[in-house]
Amino acid sequence: MQVSKGARNYANATILRYMAEGAVAYAKELGCAHPEIVLHLDHGDSFELCKDCIDMGFSSVMYDGSSLPYEENIKISRQVVEYAHKYDVTVECELGVLAGVEDEVASEVSHYTKPEEVIDFATRTGCDSLAISIGTDVLHEIEAKLPGFPIVLHGSSSVPQDEVDTINKYGGNLPDAVGIPEEQLREASKSAVCKINIDSDSRLAMTST
């Protein structure tokens, strides 16, 4: 189960915690001895938010300092990692950002992940996985610098055109909406990419129905 800062505020932090615990209990009732159910914070924008989620029992958090200066991003990312690892909580950090707003983290311009920075960032922060903002041609270069290191692709929705057409047909306004071709995502999944975020696809599917 993955929630953003906004979703956590909307749904109530306590309710989310017990939803996760309830899912584990129900899975055990169905005969699953060791349910693999996690509660993950996506795009946490402060140490305080990540700490609060860790204290509430989240199994993993993502700290997103991608809109900050490089050294400040490293400093806070490391702070989150050091606290999280005390409680066996894994941490995803982000290096590089796309222009726009994603779960309340805003940037006016894009700053793609620089392959020459990934070793320094991963080493100094101690993060467990790294979210990157890249073109597909850069992925292999980053993997060569961090062989086997878990990589997360954000903003990787395929944007199905049939969903877009349905939305536009009934009053929506999504001109020229395009995403990442599914064949490229399948190719990426064969590499060190451990998670592919496709939030926009889910929103399109819900809106079109």
Task: Give descriptors for this structure.
7-stranded parallel β-sheet, two-stranded antiparallel ribbon, 209 residues
Description:
The protein is α/β, with parallel strands linked by helices and 209 residues long. 46% of the residues lie in helices and 17% in strands. It contains 9 helices and 9 strands. The chain has helices at 5-11, 13-29, 47-55, 70-85, 115-125, 136-145, 161-169, 182-189, 199-208, and strands at 2-4, 40-44, 60-63, 90-95, 100-102, 105-107, 129-132, 151-153, 193-196. The strands form 2 sheets. A 7-stranded parallel beta sheet has the order 1-2-3-4-7-8-9. Strands 5-6 form a two-stranded antiparallel ribbon. Strand 5 (100-102) and strand 6 form a beta hairpin. Helix 7 packs across helix 9. The longest helix is centred in the first third of the chain and has 17 residues, at 13-29. It is globular, with a radius of gyration of 18 Å. 28% of the residues are buried. The mean pLDDT is 88.
Task: Compose a concise summary of this entry.
The protein is an alpha/beta fold and 209 residues long. The chain contains nine helices and nine strands.
